[in-house]
Amino acid sequence: MVNKNLAENGQATIEFALTLPFLFLFSLCVVQVGSIANDQLVLNHAAQTAARAVSLADVTPESAQQVALTAIEREINLREIRIEVDLDQALANVNLRYEKKIAVPVIGQLFGDFSLQSSATMPRELVTTDD
After folding, report:
1. Are residues 64 and 87 in contact, defined by beta-carbon separation less than 8 angstroms?
2. 10 in a domain, yes or no?
3. Rounded CA gap, 43 and 37, in Å?
4. pTM for the whole thing?
5. What is the secondary structure of 67-85 as a DSSP string?
6. What is the chain's mean pLDDT, rounded?
7. How many domains are contained in the chain?
């Protein structure tokens, strides 16, 4: 007669061994989603910072792109961000786009790359001089 408790111990070990890869993949997915959410928050902050810098500067539409780039590089460490600046008399609008490459081998093949984008608009505060 086989001891029933001994047989159940082996069954639990087999079930754990079968579910462990799925638990590991799930934990990698959770970490990757957290990383993407963090990058989106950073991109939102960068767009607001760049829009504020452009709105406070007395610049031409041609040089507004460089002002936005300088403000972004001082604030965040994301690289290869595409920047579009729309500047008129009343508003400064900054649009950012970032291609997030997933470096985790299995997760990267399942989901591919993500395209994150953010925009911010601020009113221009130009200094006027009274002559």
Report:
1. yes
2. no
3. 10
4. 0.77
5. HHHHHHHHH----SEEEEE
6. 84
7. 1
Closest CA to 94 of 60, 125, 70, 118: 118
* Cβ–Cβ < 8 Å for 51, 72: no
Question: Could you tell me the residue range of the domain that residue 107 belongs to?
Answer: 34-123
Burial class (CB in 10 A: 0-12, 13-18, 19+), 98: buried
Range with the poorest average pLDDT among 40-44, 90-94, 99-103: 99-103
Distance CA 64, CA 91 (A): 12
Instruction: Work out whether strand 91-100 and strand 114-123 pair parallel, antiparallel, or are unpaired.
Output: antiparallel
Answer whether 116's CB lies under 8 Å from 100's CB: yes
User: For 10, which DSSP code?
Assistant: H
Dist. CA 102–CA 79, nearest whole Å: 15
In a domain, 15, yes or no: no
Which residues are registered as beta bridge partners of 97? 82, 117
> Do residues 37 and 114 lie in contact, with contact meaning Cβ atoms separated by under 8 Å?
no
The answer to whether residue 72 sits within a structural domain is yes
Amino acid identity of residue 49, one-letter, is T
